[in-house]
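Pipeline run #58 for the internal structure catalog. This entry was flagged by the ingest filter as a single-chain record with no existing model, so it goes straight to prediction. Upstream metadata was stripped on purpose; only the residue string is passed forward. Reviewer on rotation: M.T. Logging verbosity set to normal.
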Amino acid sequence: MKLKILLMPFSVVLSLMLIIGYIYPSWFGEDVGSIKNIKSEIKKESDELSAVKMKKSNIDKLSQSLRNNPELESLINKYYPTYRNDEDVVNNINNIAFTEGVFLTDMSIDYKKIESSDNPNLVMAIPLQVDSVVDTADSSTGGVVAPNVDENGNSLEDLAKSRIKFIEADLEMNGSYEQIKRFLSALNKAGLLNNIQSFKLYKKENPSVTNNGEEKPLDFLTADVIVGFGYLISSNKQIDSLLRADLFSKNSFNFYDADSKKSILIGNYKRSEVGEVGISNPFLKEGAVQ
């Protein structure tokens, strides 16, 4: 009887030792294989899967939103294209010049991109939508991490800027003050994203006589203008990284701004159609002798 009484506390102590030494760590310990951590990992993966499903649903709704607004989608794609179209740039500059009575004496084209040190809002009037850099403490390492970098540590802001490219047109033109002013104003209605980057207006020497010996008007001026026409290179990032974009947290596009500026998107220019033999000389009026 006494032996049974002695064995009872020993059994209790042994059970407690087993619970503390084996059962508790396997259920509630911090080991990778503990049931607590396994449940936490399952919840994490489940939440991520739910987020992916939600974003997939949003992508379908965004696609439907585009299908419901085909006209605006087409106008936006023409205004801010994902390709470089030199023909449209040259022809629209030329068409506007003829319409406003400005004589283009020189045009040169250069291809540029917005560098990481540039302000895209100043270069091409494009507000760059990237989350601001906010350093946050990493409790696991005690260091500091920046949330707006990709998996390779590249700045998302720099990556976004590197995709923004533009055709830089360097123009020299002659005309009256009013003609040049109307030309510059008309560029904003060309239906192509553009931004005047520099402008210089002056009178050349001997302004009263042309090369043909004809008398020039008193308000005959020369203008040097640099204007950029923007386009955006499509992203080549993997789908899993694109899924983290803020865009896919929404389920519809807001077309209000595009709709309110529809007159700018439509433009007053004629699209270029390049045939097998190319286009006619855009610097000569129709019927002019070369």
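catalog note: The two ends are 126 Å apart (CA to CA).
catalog note: Confidence is low (pLDDT under 50) at residues 131-145, 274-279.
status: ready for reviewer M.T.
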